[in-house]
Every structure is written in C-alpha cells, then in structure tokens.
UniProtKB/TrEMBL annotation:
Pfam families reported in the protein's UniProt record: Acyl-CoA_dh_2, Acyl-CoA_dh_M, Acyl-CoA_dh_N
SUPFAM superfamilies in alphabetical order: Acyl-CoA dehydrogenase C-terminal domain-like, Acyl-CoA dehydrogenase NM domain-like
Molecular function GO labels: flavin adenine dinucleotide binding; oxidoreductase activity, acting on the CH-CH group of donors
Highest taxon of source: Bacteria
InterPro entries found in the cross-reference section: Acyl-CoA_DH_C (IPR013107), Acyl-CoA_Oxase/DH_mid-dom (IPR006091), Acyl-CoA_Oxase/DH_mid-dom_sf (IPR046373), AcylCo_DH-like_C (IPR036250), AcylCoA_DH/ox_N (IPR013786), AcylCoA_DH/ox_N_sf (IPR037069), AcylCoA_DH/oxidase_NM_dom_sf (IPR009100), Mito_Isobutyryl-CoADH (IPR052547)
UniProtKB keywords: Flavoprotein, Oxidoreductase
Source species: Komagataeibacter diospyri
Domain named Acyl-CoA oxidase/dehydrogenase middle: residues: 137-227
Listed name of the protein: Acyl-CoA dehydrogenase
Domain Acyl-CoA dehydrogenase/oxidase N-terminal: 29-99
Residue stretches making up the Acyl-CoA dehydrogenase C-terminal domain: 258-377
Length: 393
C-alpha cells in the first residue's frame, strides 16, 4: 500500500545530516565496537560497553523529537547510523535500531500524552534510557502474521495488571522501557502497546537466547507476572481495527532499517575479504590473490550486489523525504538487500574455503550474523506474497 502525506518530509527528519552522524564520531565508535565484537559473540552477553559508549556519545537521544530536546533523527540518519554500527557489531546495531524505531513510534502516536511522554523522553536524553517493543510470543509467533496476543491486561481490585511472556526480546536486561504488545480481557478486547518500566516487580528475564547468529542481542524471554501498571501506561490499547495514519511510515522505516543493518554486515565481510586477498600470497603463486582475474571478477560481483542494495535503500530514503510511504516496495527492499547481503558473504566463503570458516577470522561470524536477516520481519514469503497480490490487483 502506497501512502502520500501532504508534508514534504517527516516532521522528525533533518534535511541536512546533523553532527551526530559525522564520520569522526561514527568511526571512533565503530573502531571500538569492532574490537569487542568477537568477544561478545563468543560470550553471548549483551554489549554493555558498546551501549555505554553510545549513551556517552548522546546517540540514544537522536530519535527524540526536537521539541522534547532530542535530535529529531529521520530515516536517513537512522539508516546511516545503523549501517555504520552494523559493520562493526550488528548486535549493537540491532539494539540501537529497535530503540530508535520505537522511540519514533512513541513520538508519533497521539495516544501517549504528557507527562508520560515527557518522562520517557527525558529519561532517554538525561539518563540514556533504552527502549524496545516486545511483540513475539511462544505460541503466537510474530503478530505480523495476525492473531491476538496471549499477554493480557486485567483490572483487579482497581489495579491494572499485565501477565504474559515475550520471546526474542532484543536488549532484554539492558532495557529501561518496554512497549509490550498486549490485549485486555474485555468481551471486546482492546489491543496495542502497553508501556512497562522494566524495573517493576513481576518483570523477569529468562536467558533463553542461544542462537547461531546475532548472539549478543540478548534477545531473551521476558515474563510479566501480574505487573501492576498505572492507567496512563495503557494508553496504547485500542480497538483491533485501529490503524494510525503514521503506520505506513513506521512500516517503511522498519523494513528499510533492517535491510540496511544486514547490508552493513555484508560490507564488513567485503572489507575483510578484499584485505585477505591482498595479504594472502600462496607460495606456488608468488603474488597476492588480489592479482588473479577470477578474484577480481568475484569482487566485481560482490560490489554489484552492494551497489544494488545501496541504490534500493537510497531510493526508499528519498521517497520518505518526499512523504511517500510505499510499504510493498520497502518490504521488497528489505528482502532484496538481505538476500544480496547473504550472497555476498557466501561468495567470499566459497572463494577461500576453510580460512573463511575459521573462528580465528571474522568471516564466519559475519556469515552467521547475516543469515539472521531471513527470519527478521518482514520475512521473505510474506513480502513476495504481498508484492504479487499487489501486482495482480
């Protein structure tokens, strides 16, 4: 579905990238994160040092509207930061990207009111609070495929209480706030976001995340056991048919940002691979692998795939600046960039064999990480089905 708004650009966007995305700042952070990436991947622990560095640099407040003291980052800035950080440590990039996207969601929704809105933004700006949206459940799976959540808000003795469990909760024990997808127990249930301060009694984290890739995202299971919530924290609950006018914009931002993240992993793999080709001098050849035509052609193939990805992401960002939010094309952008990114890493692995699979080298880590793009919403089968239905009317 394509939506065009009257404004020429999102209200939160800058026409010129602000200071927080300058190369020196991003390069310093990326260099630190790249040095720590293997350690966090091996341990499976959240990259708390990286998050502390982002907090100190003021990057957590970037997506807060300027009216609330933030930088008002738009899609261009979010994509830029996500891509750059993903080249160094994609787990950190995913935590940050989800924080940005849900900060924007909270900012755009008219359902949340002051003083709660101000309190949340102030906690991010002044204390470096981190937030994410928790949607996926053990039985339901991802709500993107339909269905009501089992996580429920019930009013008991005048107090609203939340109970349920969420899986794949990226950031988990580093989160200050969680927007939790839930429903009421009413005859006609309301559905939507409930804002949960993660320090409240009854919030428990079960360390269940032990995946092949993106291991440092801390995407554990979060259990809510009769968590008492103030009424204004339930403002996001509405009729299931409610579709906010900004939903198309957020859908585009999510798809394009996720695609940019996995494209960043492919860029990191390409950088390592070309360095390896320059450094590797087989005894029987007497010169670097980079001088061989077959490797030169292969790097050309890789660069063609990355160029395609960049063009697609740039096109989506450009449309966003024009106020055009084409959800189908944004989802296709995520699908194509992710598949191209996987192909880039696979080509590099196939070309050099065992050295690429060694844990002493980062390429095998890039491969494990980039594969996670396929299971990231929106998933390929849904994307292609929706695109086909649109094309066929």
């Amino acid at each position: 579905m394509k939506t065009r708004l009257k404004s020429s650009a999102p209200a939160t966007a800058h026409t010129v990238p602000p200071a927080f995305v300058t190369a020196p700042v991003m390069d310093r952070l990326a260099a630190r994160f790249a040095k720590r990436a293997a350690q966090y991947d091996k341990s499976g622990n959240l990259p708390l040092q990286n998050l502390a560095d982002l907090r100190k640099a003021g990057l957590l407040a970037c997506a807060i509207p300027t009216a609330y003291g933030g930088d008002g980052a738009g899609l261009q800035e979010i994509v830029h930061i996500t891509d750059r950080i993903a080249q160094a440590d994609p787990s950190t990039a995913l935590i940050l990207a989800m924080h940005y996207l849900h900060t924007v969601s909270f900012a755009l929704s008219p359902l949340w009111q002051d003083p709660l809105r101000s309190t949340l933004f102030r906690s991010i700006e002044q204390k470096g609070a981190l937030m994410n949206g928790l949607r996926v459940e053990p039985e339901l799976g991802t709500p993107a495929r339909g269905g009501l959540p089992a996580t429920t808000v019930v009013r008991k003795n005048g107090v609203y209480r939340l109970s349920g469990a969420k899986i794949f909760s990226t950031g988990s024990y580093a989160l200050t706030w969680a927007l939790v997808w839930a429903r009421t127990d009413e005859d006609n249930p309301r559905v939507g976001w409930v804002l949960v301060p993660m320090h409240l009694p009854g919030v428990k984290i079960e360390k269940s995340w032990d995946h092949i890739g993106m291991r440092a995202t801390g995407s554990h299971t979060v259990v809510f056991d009769n968590v008492a919530l103030p009424e204004d924290h339930l403002a996001g609950l509405t009729d299931p048919a409610y579709m906010p006018d900004y939903a198309a914009r957020l859908g585009v931002w999510h798809a394009v940002t996720v695609g940019a993240l996995y494209n960043g992993i492919a860029k990191a793999a390409r950088a390592w691979f070309t360095g390896y080709l320059h450094d590797r001098v087989p005894a029987n050849l007497g010169r670097p692998l980079s001088t061989l035509p077959r490797f030169q052609s292969l790097v050309g193939e890789i660069d063609a795939l990355l160029l395609t990805n960049s063009a697609l992401v740039d096109r989506a960002v450009g449309q966003d600046r024009e106020g055009i939010f084409d959800g189908v094309n944004a989802d296709l952008t995520k699908y194509i960039t992710t598949e191209n990114a996987i192909t880039v890493v696979e080509k590099a692995l196939a070309a050099i064999g065992n050295p690429g699979l060694s844990r002493h080298q980062p390429l095998e880590r890039h491969y494990r990480n980039v594969l996670c793009g396929r299971v990231h919403t929106p998933q390929g089968d849904s994307v292609l089905l929706h695109a086909g239905r649109k094309a066929l009317g």
